[in-house]
Amino acid sequence: MCGRFSLHLTDLAAVASALGVSLPPDAELPAWEPRYNVAPTQPSPIAIDDAEPTLTMARWGLLPHWAKDAGEGARAINARVESAADKPSFRDSWRAQRCIVPATGYFEWKRLDDGEREPMWIHREDSAIMRMAGLWSRWRSPGGERLTTFTVLTQAARGSVAAIHDRMPIELSKDGAAGWLAPVHTDAHARDVISDGTLNTEHLRAHPVGKIVGNPRNDSRACIEAVEPAPARQQLTFDELFGSGS
Question: Known catalytic residues?
Fold first, then answer.
């Protein structure tokens, strides 16, 4: 599960460029401040192909068009890649409304031997933007409210990330991201992109962070700064804690 992520950049034009998409031609995106702790139901930019590949703002937590209440989105912040094509909440978006969720890192909580959970920030070693595969939808409330919403696709954890959590977001390569956004409305296309365009974990690094990240009201650089490992883990080797990177 991915329940928090960071996008601590200020220039959305640079984010759009990194994703190979444009800024909206007919409207400016809202001012964007660095975000260190994006939480469910909060807005964040995503890349979609809606007539053309474009960056747009959306709320985290997918609402299918038939949802009765906006609160339902809080339960759909992640979609399992193994079942998204068949699950009613996600299957339409899987075929026709795929998106890229840019992030500078994401958080997972590792269970320690004593049962406690330690938050970890997982990010690229080169500090580049992560292209997380996602699904999006447009929803209209009975009262006329319009929302664009999204969810992050997850897969079984690989490599060193598996020592932290059993699930991880799907991070796509540059070509994989372009293929994921392509307006090809077939299940086979989506599966082929995931199969061929998903990155491995050699470039990922992780370090423990403070428990302040658990509170969505905390949104400062302190959320991603490394802290000393929990005492229960101080005897682990470097490779056991972070992965060998090989």
Answer: 2, 108
